[in-house]
Amino acid sequence: MAKDDDMGDDRLSFFIRQVQSHYFSHFPIVADADGGYAGLFLKHRVETELRRPRPDMWLAHTRYRAPTGQAVREDTVIALCRASETAVVLDRFARSVHLLNLLSRARPAQTIYLPVSRALIDGVPEGHGTVFRDIVERLALPCRIGIMLPATLAAEPERLARIAASYRDNGFVTALDDIDGPRRLDPPQVA
């Protein structure tokens, strides 16, 4: 058991050194009962829910819990943000917590799909994926990272195409979040 605890401590130390100290120094990380980690944002827990629909894929979803332990909706937590930039940082923090929870599980042939909130989509006018690419590079994960864009973007095809292209330009696979899992967006065909 001590060996697992040491490995968890090593993962957390690595994460703090490589990512948290650079991007999220005001957002604490706490261990959970299952050997994973959660973040804290204004006393709300930012938790990772992982699914593995296929051996080559991980799907991460964000769960938020109020200080009382009750599950709360994402928009409830985002409403606590005083500035739109804070909602953007919260989104990146949640995805980074997911990566922390996958540090010891990710394999080269796998794709990890991480959700992006509508708050981030609306709060970042251009250059989607630039900051998060640096976070991923700092963690040196051996796998592909997929960005699950909000399904509501399907109603805005031109905007969806621009945002997906920006993420792809930064090295990410892109998909729309769908009830059945990520619906991968193919890169534009070259004529």
Automatic annotation (TrEMBL):
This is EAL domain-containing protein.
